From TrEMBL:
It is an enzyme of class 2 (transferase). This is Dihydrolipoamide acetyltransferase component of pyruvate dehydrogenase complex. CDD domains: lipoyl_domain (cd06849). Residues 125-162 form the Peripheral subunit-binding (PSBD) domain. Belongs to the 2-oxoacid dehydrogenase family. GO terms for cellular component: pyruvate dehydrogenase complex. The lineage of its organism: Bacteria, Bacillati, Actinomycetota, Actinomycetes, Kitasatosporales.
Length: 398
């Protein structure tokens, strides 16, 4: 019997998502576990999988449409069933979606109709920034060759097209820049964090001369991927979590939840806003495997290819602004995690070693902590372990 496939709540608090792709054409059969549709939230791509055998009878939403949670996306049937054109179970009349998008476009009819899958001009996707740059330069983003995932047009593609044309992009006019869904979601989450989680902050510093020397030696060795300074920070944070497990916890109304694994989130700046993919078993991965996993998560975060599960879990986020010359800063805890570690640049400072003053590179770190599950002495022990690992970096290779 025909029934509706509705947009699920693919992540807690999600009210809408973009229908990114239809892997199946109308009339295609599917089995349990097959992907029926891929949808995109503010931060991740999510596959909607079939639970039973069936057939995709009709699509109700075009690729690229914003669909509210609970809105119908397609008509599914039992194996061997065909589309009769009758509404399944309830009316599928169109309902307006948010921001002018159609959550349910009218069901096409008539002998001249061409279904989306057979369209001669497939939809060309572009990032919001790429579309804006193209519009300001008088270009149609659909005419720009895309190098992103699935042919998606990204910022670099538009800038290259502008350069080929020999005309610089016009500077953006003064005015209001509408919030993206990612910016709204991030703002709401951080406001809730500051409102509900009582923050306290610890600041520490570490002499980083041996750490930088180790990184240079690792870079000189043959082999890929290259180990970055941030990879060493992630490993040090993970090992500090292993040494001080009382910080590897989360607050809940029923109690403090403890964890056996050490999963560290890494803050990544993207065109859509900040995302925090989670690196699993960061304390156990070999260093080059950690570097490879981090590079993969970062690349897919910037391309919008993360899965929802890759954004969940962990008790600590690491954010690093040292590459911009920032010396020191404090960050807001990323709920429902317990702490966030903010790292600045390694800069030469006068330090005292064995009674002598000399210049050495120093890294400053700020740990922001939710005081509900963690007391100050626990965070202080963690910071002491973290800075000691930076000053004795050979321990990071163990």
């Amino acid at each position: 019997m025909a029934h509706l496939l509705r947009m699920p709540e693919v992540a807690a608090g999600t009210t809408e998502a973009v229908l990114r792709a239809w892997p199946l054409a109308p009339g295609s059969a599917f089995a349990p576990g097959d992907v029926l549709a891929t949808v995109e939230t503010d931060k991740a791509a999510v596959d909607i999988e079939a639970e039973t055998d069936g057939v995709l009878l009709r699509r109700l939403v075009a690729e690229g449409a914003v669909v509210r949670v609970g809105a119908a996306m397609a008509v599914l049937g039992a194996p061997g069933e065909t589309d009769t054109g009758r509404p399944p179970e309830e009316s599928t009349e169109p309902r307006p979606g948010p921001d002018g998008s159609a959550g349910l476009p009218p069901r096409p009819s008539g002998p001249g109709h061409t279904p989306p899958a057979a369209s001669a001009s497939p939809r060309v996707f572009g990032s919001p920034l790429a579309r804006r740059l193209a519009r300001e330069a008088g270009l149609a983003h659909e005419d720009v060759p895309g190098t992103g995932p699935g042919g998606r047009v990204v910022r670099g593609d538009v800038l290259a097209a502008i350069a080929r044309r020999g005309r610089p992009a016009a500077p953006p006019a003064d005015g209001l820049v509408p919030h993206t869904r990612a910016r709204r979601a991030s703002a709401a989450r951080l406001v809730e964090s500051k409102r509900s989680a009582p923050h306290f902050y610890l600041r520490g510093s570490a002499r980083a001369g041996e750490l930088l020397a180790l990184r240079r030696r690792l870079t000189a060795l043959d082999g890929t991927p290259r180990v970055s300074l941030n990879d060493l920070f992630v490993r040090a944070a993970a090992q500090a979590h292993r040494a001080v497990p009382a910080l590897n916890v989360r607050w809940s109304e029923d109690g403090v939840r403890t964890y056996d694994t050490v999963d560290v989130a890494i803050a990544v700046a993207t065109e859509r806003g900040l995302v925090t993919p989670v690196l699993r078993d960061a304390d156990r991965l070999p260093l080059r495997a950690l570097a490879a996993a981090t590079a993969d998560l970062t690349a897919r975060a910037r391309a919008g290819e993360l899965r929802q599960a890759e954004l969940e879990g962990g008790t600590l986020t690491l954010t690093n602004l040292g590459m911009y010359g920032t010396e020191e800063f404090a960050a807001i805890v990323n709920p429902p995690q317990t702490a966030i570690l903010a790292l600045g640049a390694a800069r030469p400072e006068a330090v005292v070693v064995d009674g002598e003053v000399r210049a050495e590179p120093v890294v400053r770190a700020t740990l922001s902590v939710d005081h509900r599950p963690v007391d100050g002495v626990v965070a202080a022990r963690w910071m002491r372990e973290f800075t000691a690992l930076l000053e004795e970096p050979l321990r990071l290779l163990l």
